[in-house]
Amino acid sequence: MTKELGVGIIGCGNISTTYFKLAPLFRGIRIIACADIDPAAAEARAAEFDVTAQSIEALLANPELDIIVNLTIPEAHFPVSKAILEAGKHVYSEKPLVLSLEQGEELRATAKAKGLLVGSAPDTFLGGAHQLARAYVDQGKIGRITSGTCHVMSPGMEMWHPNPDFFFLPGGGPVLDLGPYYIANLINLIGPVKRVAALSSMANQTRTITSEPRKGEVIPVKTPTNIHALLEFQNGATITLSASWDVWAHRHGNMELYGTDGSLFVPDPNFFGGTVEASGRGKEIQPLEAWDHPFAVNNWEHPLGPIANYRTAGLADMADAILAGRDARCSLDRALHAVDVMVSILKSGEEGRFVTLTTTCTQPAALGIEEARALLR
Ligand SMILES: NC(=O)c1ccc[n+]([C@@H]2O[C@H](COP(=O)([O-])OP(=O)(O)OC[C@H]3O[C@@H](n4cnc5c(N)ncnc54)[C@H](O)[C@@H]3O)[C@@H](O)[C@H]2O)c1
């Protein structure tokens, strides 16, 4: 691929630095401008990463931009993505893509009418660990997946994020915030979901921020913070998903998948790397032999040690898909199906009944070693 697509960013908060730092690893994309509802935030990032700060209107009208990345807070995702499409640019959004199916269908219709693509994070399922798990499943090593468990549980977000309010408002909560990583990876490994059921609750009506600079401030909780869900997949597999910010400690694995011929132990889908383990019939659990996948290589300092971090891989894959006229792995169809799963889980928690999904999608194409390498500079 020789052509490079111009990329702009709307939303210059916490996660934007990751995009600015990692996008240069990838071919086919170049971040050239950024904007924020708070012009000072855009100016700060522009100075830090040597791009142009613009007003939102000027960024939307910038003829050098082909794709605009939406890194605003969840409740702004829909209006900002809609405005990007109306300005004639492709959209790549942080998760969750939107907060309702209606919003997603409106984006789909607008994108179709304008001949544009919409893509969405998470792209962590493109990581070396999750693609190794995918290859193992595709090779039939654990047989047909019939069931499994996913656990994403912690005490919350108010101890690290400087502005944690949105996590505890509608559009936040552990299912919409962290569920996308798990559901995207389940779609990667198993396929689409048929119906869901859930119980939901919240331990506290308020939370006290312990991170700086707002330490001690009390913020409201307006969405469930503890959800236990059941997912029935179209292939018949049944998965338990526990997502909670009301848990101080636990001993559950992130993701365990049980097949007719063995079990697969998948590392945290919020990250690209990690150790994948498996066992066959009557066999002990063993780590899978590591493979030479470029998105498994540690390249990032995390407070707990070095990790593989290739966020923006999904954006680079979408840019390649635009140029090649192929399906993007982090596509609107898959992101909207994940939204359907998540809002249906929350609806089931409110209404106490199974909810059958109205959307579906295909599994994304696997991203093997060569395909991943081709995305890198
Ligand atoms: N922080 C993380 O580690 C992380 C990781 C993965 C994904 N995400 C996702 O990325 C998104 C942003 O998260 P964040 O942590 O960077 O949030 P943040 O609050 O730090 O930053 C959001 C930025 O968007 C701007 N903004 C809000 N509404 C806007 C609008 N209508 N138009 C233009 N700008 C607007 C804000 O001024 C702010 O600068 C969220 O959807 C979140 O789920 C965050």
From TrEMBL:
It comes from the Bacteria. Residues 6-118 form the Gfo/Idh/MocA-like oxidoreductase N-terminal domain. Gene3D superfamilies: Dihydrodipicolinate Reductase, domain 2, NAD(P)-binding Rossmann-like Domain. The keyword Transport does not apply. Keywords: Oxidoreductase. Residues 130-264 form the GFO/IDH/MocA-like oxidoreductase domain. This is Dehydrogenase.
